[in-house]
Amino acid sequence: MYECRVSRHTGFTFSALALAITATPLPAAEGESRGSTEHVEVVGQAVSVDKALRQQRRSDNVESVVHADGVAQLPDQNVAEAAQRLPGVSIERDQNEGRFISVRGMGPDLNSVSINGTLVPAPESGRRAVALDVLPAELVQSLSVVKTLTPDMDANSLGGTISVESLSAFDHAGLFYTFSGEGSHDENTSENSPKFSGAFSQRFSLGSGVDNFGIAAAYSWSDRDFGSDNVETGGDWDFEDGSRLEQAELRDYEISRERTGFGLNFDYRPDDYSSYYLRTLYSRYKDTETRNAAGVEFADPMAPGTTGAAEGWRELKDRKEIQTIRSYVLGGERLLGAWTLNGQIGYSRSSENTPNGLNATFAGNDDFSDAGFSSRRKPHLNIGREFFAADSFGLDEVEWSKSRTTDTERNIKLDLARDYELSGHAARVKFGGKLSRRDKDNDTDILTFEDLDEHGLNDAQLAMGNFTSGSVDYGLGNFGPGLSAGKVKGLLGRLDRNAFYDAEESRVNDYDMSEDIDAAYLMHTLDVGDLRIIAGMRYERTRFEARGSGIRDGNYEKINADNSYTRWLPGLHLRYQLDKRTQLRAAITHSVVRPTFGQLAPGFVIDGDEASFGNPNLRPLKSRNIDLGIEHYLGRAGVVSAFLFYKDIDNFTYNTDLAGSGDWTDFSEANTFANGDRADLWGLELAWSQKFDWLPAPWNGLLLGGNLTVTHSDTSISGRDPNSGRALHRNIDLPSQSKRVGNLMLGWEDDRLSVRLSVNYKSKYLQEVAGITDKKRDLYVDDQTFVDFSARYALTKNLRLTFEAQNLTDENYYVYSGRRSFNAQYEEYGPTYRLGLTLTHF
Hints:
It comes from Azomonas macrocytogenes (Azotobacter macrocytogenes). By secondary structure, the chain is mostly beta strands. It has 7 helices and 43 strands. The protein has one domain: TonB-dependent receptor, beta-barrel domain (Maltoporin, Chain A, Beta Barrel).
C-alpha cells in the first residue's frame, strides 16, 4: 500500500513540473496578427535582485537584502524561507516549514527581529527568537539581515538583525493593487489547502500638496493541512553494551496551520522638509496538531535483528496553539536647517495561547514478547500483531494543560543629525537615545489525571478500544488504530477536575519578568575622497527583574531576583570606493545579547537529591566582532563579494549539571544554566549573482546566483565528573552552528515566463549538549539539501499563473546521537505543490 502511494505522488510530481516548464505564450486570436499582440512584461527575479543589491550597495552596514518584486511578493511563502536564500543565513524548520533564522552560525536566540524599526518580542515562553513563519510573505516589502551594527542601532544581536519593512504607498507611483488565489497539495497526506492574499496602495493630495498622503494595506490568509511521519529513539542507546537500543517510538503528525496577516500603513509628506508615518501589523498563527504515537521500551537493550520482551504504550497528543503579533510604529522626520530630527514610538505585543492541550498515555496490559527492531538509522519495529491491537492497551494517564505567554515591548527613540563640512570634507554628527521597556509573563495550569481506577473507573471503561478513531496513515510501516481526543475528553468530563490539579507543575512554570534598557549613542561620519569613516560609541544600561515560584521538597517558595549591568560599545566602520563598481568594507563592532527567558526563569524544583532550576543571575553574552570584505557590482542584478568575519564571545550560556559542587555537593542532579568563559567564531562568506542580459536570446534571460558561508567555532563547557567530582572541560562547537551553508539559484525569464530552480544546503550542527563525560549522547542535526522550483507565466499584462514545488527531493529531518548511525529522530514530509493566479495593477 505504501509503494502504491509513492508511485501515485511521483506521477503528480512529473505532471506538475511538465505543466510549469512547457508553458508558452498564448497564440494570437483568429484574425489578429502577432505583431499586434499586447506587450506583456514579467516583473520578477531580476527586478527584485537588482533592488536588493542597490540597497545593499548604499548601506553603511554589511547587509544582505531580499526585496519584493513588482507585485509586492517575496519569492517564498514566509519571511524565514525568503531569508534562507541570503549569504550566511540558514533556517530551522518545523514540519518542513522554515521557522527560525540562524545567521553566520549563531543560534536564533542570538539574533533580533524588528518590524518597521521596532523590536518584535517572541511569542514562545522561553525564547527570544521570533518564529518568522508567523509573518506571511505578502505583508513584507523588503527583508534585510544587517550583520554589522552601527552605534545608532540596538546592540542586541550577534549573528545579525533581521529587519522587516512593510509596504508603503510611496513604493509605487499612483494606484497599485494585487490579488492572489492559490491551492496547495501536500504529498505526504494528499491534502489540498487554500490561500488568498492581496495588497493595495494609493496616494492622495491633501491641502496644497500633490500626492503627499499615502495609504497602503496588505492581507493574507491561508489554511494548510499537512503532516509528517516520524520514528525516534530520543538518543536512548546503551553505548556501554555494544550500542544497543533501549526504546523507540513511532509518531504520526496531522496538522492544520491557519495564518492570517493584515497590515495598514499611512504616510504623510506635507512638504520637502518633513515626513510622518504610521505602520501597523497584525499576524495570527493557529496551529492545530494531532499526534498519534506507539512506542516500546525493551526489557534489556536490544541489538538490531534480535528479539526479547518489551513494554509497549500508545500516546495521543492533541493541542491548539495560537500565536499573535501586533506592532504599531508612529514616527517621522523633520529637516531643521542643517539638522535632521527623527523620532519614533513603537509598541509590539506577542502572545502564545495554548488552550485545552491534551496528552493521553495508554499502557500495555502485558509485556510483548519477541520484540525487536531493524536499522539503527530508521528503526523499524519487529513485533507481534497484538502490539497493533486496541485491546492490548488501557488508559493510564492524561495530562491536560492550558498556558498563555505574553511578551510586550514599548520603546521611544529620538535621533538628531547635522551635516557639515570638516576641512572641506562632507561630515555628519549624529546622536540620540532610546528607552525600551519589555515585560514577559507566563501562566500555566496543568491537570494530571492518574490512578483513574481509584476514581470509580474500571478496566472496561479504560480500554483503549473505547477511544479509537479509524486507522493511522503512517508511511514508515504498520501503526494500527488512531486515538480520538474527543472521546478522551468525554471521559474526563465525568470526573472532578479539581481533584487532579497539579500545583507543582502549574506554579513552577509561572513567571513575570521585566527588562528595561536605556541607551544613548554618539557617532560621526566623515567622507574623505572615496573613503567613508563611521566611528561612535553606544551606551546601554539594563535592569532585569524576575518573579516566580520554586518548590523544595513539597514546600513552595516565592522567588524575586534582579540584576543590572552597563555596557559601553564602541564601533568603527570603513567603506572605501576602489572604483565605480568596487568597494571595500571593514568594521569593528561590539554586541551585547541577553540570555533567553527560559534560561533566566526563576522557578526551581528540588526533590530529594535532584534539582532543576533557571538562573536569573546569568551575565549577558558580549562579543567583539571584526568584518572585512570586498564587493564588486556587475551591472543589473549582478555582484560578487567576499567577507571574512571573526567573533570573540564572552559569557556564552550553556546547560550544565552542578551536582557535586558548592551548594549542590550532596545532589545527584542539579541541572541549570551557566556562563562559559569564551568562544571564538571565524568565517568566510562568498556570494555571486549575475543577469546575463548581454547574451543573445534566449540566453539573455538567464540569471545565476550562489553563495557559500564556511564557519569554524571553538568553545568549551565545564562540569564535574559525576563519580569523582573532579572538574572537567570539554571542547564543543557552538550549538546551531552549521560549518557550511550554501545556496544555488538558476533562473530564466522573458516578457512572459519566469522560472527558478533553487538549492539550499546546510551541513550538520550540534543541537543539544549531553553531560560533560557523555559526548556520545550529544545530539546533532544531520545535513540537509532542499530543492525548490517556481514558475510564473503572464497570461495578460495584469494576470499571471504561478506554480511552485517545494522539497522536490523529499529531504528528511534526521537527528542522531554521537554518530550518524544512531537515531534520535527521523522525520519525513514529502514535497508540496502550489498553483495560483495573481491579478495586479501598477
